[in-house]
Structure to design on (241 residues):
């Protein structure tokens, strides 16, 4: 079984490695080169084939979504700490979820677990509108400011519990969730548009990446994609466990 790493366990090693990397200060051209290498070696060399996703990952300045002391490590094949015990997901995981969700122009996305705002920015490079929910007020505010500063005006960030989705803007063509509940939240399934896809890590000790697809007639199918490791979903998801 594939095990994709995205969460807290790897974070400690990734964080320590980056603190001792000693790469000095890098310029825009260095970061562009690191981004291109990330796209070729970590994404295209695996199974990321959607050119829109690859182009989006090549454009979004990931080094501006991590703490400044981690900038030189931003394009490594790992998650990184962003404060408050949370992480920015591994680049491959962001690309994979965006590809599996079938992000495309003309679509409307819901992003649950804004964190740094990086996944929201990648989505905004492709789809028409992104709604992003983060439960921690400090992270929500920092991501909102960062996304505005970087010109991602089509992302709206709200502080709240993503378990309930964002009914005022539903239905969504795609929903990407970056924190793992024990079970798929029913409100998220209800807020999927016909033809829509929900990507969500599910489980406690053992998590799987689940793809929920809603057919045009409203029927639901569920497919497990492989083992993953995400931070747990807090709020209502935790109360139900
Ligand atoms: C792996 S991090 C997300 C990474 C993020 N997508 C990025 O690009 O940086 C998971 C995030 O989900 C948030 N989270 C956890 N439970 C949540 C909930 N019930 N509703 C909304 N956000 C939640 C955490 O606070 C954390 O910021």
């Amino acid at each position: 079984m594939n095990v994709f790493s995205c969460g807290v366990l790897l974070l400690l090693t990734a964080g320590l490695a980056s603190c001792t990397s000693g790469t000095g200060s890098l310029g825009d051209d260095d970061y562009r080169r690191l981004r291109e290498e990330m796209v070729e070696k970590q994404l295209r060399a695996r199974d990321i084939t959607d050119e829109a996703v690859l182009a989006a990952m090549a454009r979004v300045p990931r080094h501006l979504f991590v703490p400044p002391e981690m900038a030189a490590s931003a394009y490594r094949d790992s998650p990184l700490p962003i404060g408050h015990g949370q992480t920015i997901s591994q680049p491959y995981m962001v690309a994979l979820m965006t590809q599996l969700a079938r992000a495309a122009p003309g679509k409307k996305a819901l992003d649950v677990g804004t964190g740094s705002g990086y996944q929201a920015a990648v989505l905004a490079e492709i789809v028409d509108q992104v709604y992003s929910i983060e439960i921690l007020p400090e992270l929500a505010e920092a991501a909102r400011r960062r996304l505005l500063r970087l010109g991602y005006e089509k992302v709206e960030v709200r502080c709240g519990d993503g378990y309930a989705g964002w009914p005022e803007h539903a239905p969504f063509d795609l929903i990407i969730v970056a924190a793992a509940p024990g079970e798929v939240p029913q409100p998220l399934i209800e807020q999927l548009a016909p033809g829509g896809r929900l990507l969500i890590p599910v489980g406690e000790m053992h998590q799987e990446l689940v793809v929920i697809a809603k057919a045009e007639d409203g029927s639901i199918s569920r497919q497990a994609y492989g083992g993953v490791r995400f931070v747990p979903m807090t709020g209502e998801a935790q109360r139900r466990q």
